Amino acid sequence: xxxxKTQQMKLWLTGGLLAGGLMMxxxxxAFTVISFGGASGDAMQQAYYGPFTQQTGKRVVPGDYNxxxxxIRAMVETGNVSWDLxxxxxxxxxxxxFEGMFEPIDWARLGLADELMDAAVEECGVGTFxxxxxxxxxxxxxxxxxxxxxDFWDVETFPGTRGLRRGxxxxxxFALMADGVPVDKVYDQLRTRAGVERxxxxxxxxxxxxxxxxxxxQPPQWLVAxxxxxxxxxxxxxxxAQEEGRNLAITWAGSLYDLDYWAIVSGSAHVDTAYEFIxxxxxxxxxxxxxxxxxxxxxxxxxxxxxxxxQASRMPxxxxxxxxxxxxxxxxxxxxxxELEQRFNAWASRL
Amino acid sequence: xxxxxxxxxxAFFDGRSLKAKLRRAERWRKxxxxxxxxxxxxFLVIVFVVPISNMLWRSVDNTELMQVMPExxxxxxxxxxQGLPDEATMAAFAEELRASRQGGGLGRxxxxxxxxxxxxxxxxxxxxxxLPVEQPVEGWRASLQSIDAAWAERETWRALQRASSLxxxxxxxxxxxxQRDDDRQIQRIEAEQRxxxxxxxxxxxxxxxxxxxxxxxxxxxxxxLATLPTSQSNLLxxxxxxxxxxxxxxxxxxxxxxxxTGGVINTTLMATGLTSDPLQLVFNRFGVLVxxxxxxxxxxxxxxxxxMKGISPSYLRAAVSLGEHPFIAFWKVYVPQTISGVAAGTxxxxxxxxxxxxxxxxxxGPSDQMVSYYVAYYTNTTNNWGMAAALGSLxxxxxxxxxxxxxxxxxxKQLVRN
Lengths: 351, 418
Hints:
The complex is a heterodimer of chains A (351) and B (418).
Chain A: H1 2-29, E1 31-35, H2 38-56, E2 60-64, H3 69-78, E3 85-89, H4 90-98, H5 107-110, E4 126-138, H6 149-153, E5 162-165, H7 171-178, H8 186-190, H9 193-206, E6 210-213, H10 218-225, E7 230-234, H11 235-243, E8 248-264, H12 271-281, H13 284-291, E9 297-298, H14 309-312, H15 319-322, E10 326-327, H16 330-349
Parallel strand pairs in A: 1-2, 1-3, 5-6, 5-7, 8-10
Antiparallel strand pairs in A: 3-8, 4-7, 4-8, 4-9
Helix pairs in contact in A: 2-13, 4-16, 7-9
Chain B: H1 2-12, H2 15-58, H3 64-68, H4 70-78, H5 87-99, H6 105-116, H7 120-130, H8 140-147, H9 154-162, H10 170-174, E1 178-180, E2 186-188, H11 196-227, H12 230-241, H13 248-259, H14 264-271, H15 285-309, H16 313-321, H17 326-337, H18 339-354, H19 358-363, H20 371-381, H21 385-417
Antiparallel strand pairs in B: 1-2
């Protein structure tokens, strides 16, 4: 009896170890794609991962992270690369590319360069969607719709608290636009000492009326709850609230757009599959499938024609919405971000 | 018989063999004891000593340039800082800059040099693109200067020189709003950029306030729980422990729902006519304190409760029966016996509160962010691990100092009592 039990246990143990070993072996071989998860991750699953596996028979192991480069850096430095393709935001792309964390993209081999929008073609990354930071407002609580960031600063006509992201990025650009700097001169201004002073001086005017947000989910929630009457917000979050029937609206003029990119982690064992996957996920039909599930703009302009009119008009890449919009200057933020964020924190801490 | 009598004592009292046997037995016990604590020791070394030493080292680590450009670094170390470095330095720099593209070295020095001047990354990229393949006839100095005028400035090379020593104090200085000027003198940074001294102050103030509030709220509750009959106190204990079983994020988010302008509390207050305008209860210091106290209260109550459970009620009764006023008796007889519980509770809560990050980030305003917020920012967002390590090391040192002071104070209290 006793020995039989021990034997059984041994059997289980061996079986378990074997299964564990097999699983590890399998995960070491599988093509791993890391995104930011959430609603976007779900849309990617349905528009890219699933169809890609169906078409090519190659399995995609999905995962998510918060965009922190530290983990990728640790992987590359220890040579233990378990992520193959990662979704990265543009500052991380620039920094990671400069530091050799990502494989340079061979555009001749990939093709696509003529099909995608210009901003999608980068040294180490391929743009996958466009998102925007916009002026959003609760249409029920304002007498009329604000037209610009100057209106955002106008507390006489539009009384109430405003939401802005807690940080220098976006905030300084918006402050300069509100102060009358033309959209195409914003970064030229910010590169000068006087421009930075001007932005902070403009922020001083509004300081008492700002409630700072930290997470992207906060602005729509605050707008709905009535904590703020208008706020800077990621366009996708507003669209999601609109889907739920909330009367939130977007002013596209003066919006800041940026791209998320696919980047191949340096030392990945699946570079070929990664290229294949990037090519697959950049086609008009797959891009349209993604953008129909979440209001992030396709990088392949041909995808806009495949979307319904109602959906296409919500995309940051719709031509009407791109008017008066500014592409975020990632190089600028990579070089000056730390200094400006420190200045912002010092400024914001002073009451 | 006689023989055996003479033999036996000699066998017994042979000092050397007995000593050896004893020593052997002793050694064996020591080995067994060591083997028992070995797993813990290994665990502590791996998860505690190594990472903390690593963090302390990273806060002064300045080896990026040395590793990627060993020759340039050596030349620059020898340079007196006057005029411009010699041709040999520039040649070494040009060669090593080209070689740095392989293996990610360029990224490491680019990141390091950008702390000296944010324009450095761009300068390195531009220079690398136009760098001649062969040694130029006019010499490296002229060649570099024709690529970018910045190479003709002494300050550019001084920045490189600063980045080429083994260690640097720039991160630690920056973590207390200081820097070295061109003459290596320590001075405060510009007023608009100063933030970390106030961040440290604020971290200590928030952690201290949370600890104090937890003590004031937890002490009566723990006393009540300790004096109630077991059946009732067990039921109430479940309420104390309930927050433990809920995720920290959920608890924090529910405070936002309760406290926000359009939230439950404000709506109620306005409906009852107590206020006409909604009160600002969240995204400020008040919200941070409420949410943190809620999360940390059990860590105060549990040690207090366990100590109070062990205090016999007869001491208090004796004091009262001897004619002392009940409150004075409580203060003089009961409270001193709870000191070890108070010490454990306050220390636990204070140290946990010092490291709070996600709660102040979600329910605080910009002037309520604590040190860990900036550590996370430098670690994850800008990848400046030197700065993250410097802030972390300083927080560690401040905590240790406070702990020492505190330890002495509590010991003195206990001494006085005894």
